[in-house]
């Protein structure tokens, strides 16, 4: 399929896990891909090489999403390199856990900077480059809707903020033909949350389908929203969670 032929995409945090799966799927659909990474240049390079092997242009930009100047520079570099920026996927995130009393201001500030401020500022910068049919897609979390384990208050709060951002931006950008949507993945098999990890059995038990998702299954929904097939979807919060929140 080439539903995204000629489109230019930026995926933040695109060197591994869901971000890498999204970058590869959108490249398979015909898009040129830029991705940001904080650490792990080797992983980012590998994703870039895979995208180029598909026949698409690719770019990796080292940028800490907690640093506004670096994030905004990545947006502008994407648009300059590809001559456009049509699709932004806000994927980069941090996953703080722990008892309420042990969470300090530094951890609070970084979580809100990466999980809330960065998607807002990246969206703000990206839409300056977008024409009609632009897309802003953010990756949230199922725990924004159902925090079944203790120690998730800060993370859940940060991901819940994306619901308000998505709905507000959808209203504001709709007249410009830009859609804005939010995907809430459920348990997904990645290196940070493997399907055979120590807590996997308990986590799986909360899903209706009784299994983890593959990262490619999350990417498939992102691809739909990014394409013309998703042109009438905006302001939506879509759970791809195997029934975790059912």
UniProtKB/TrEMBL annotation:
| The protein's enzyme class | oxidoreductase
Query: Per the UniProt record, which EC number(s) apply here?
Result: 1.1.1.-
Q: Which SUPFAM superfamilies match?
A: NAD(P)-binding Rossmann-fold domains
Q: Which UniProt keywords apply?
A: Oxidoreductase
Which residue windows are transmembrane per the record?
none
Q: Where in this chain does the record put each Ketoreductase domain?
A: 7-206
- InterPro entries assigned: KR_dom, NAD(P)-bd_dom_sf, Sc_DH/Rdtase_CS, SDR_fam
PROSITE patterns cross-referenced by the UniProt entry: ADH_SHORT
GO terms for molecular function, please? Answer: oxidoreductase activity
Q: Which family does it belong to?
A: Belongs to the short-chain dehydrogenases/reductases (SDR) family.
Name it. SDR family NAD(P)-dependent oxidoreductase
> Which organism was this protein described from?
Streptomyces kebangsaanensis
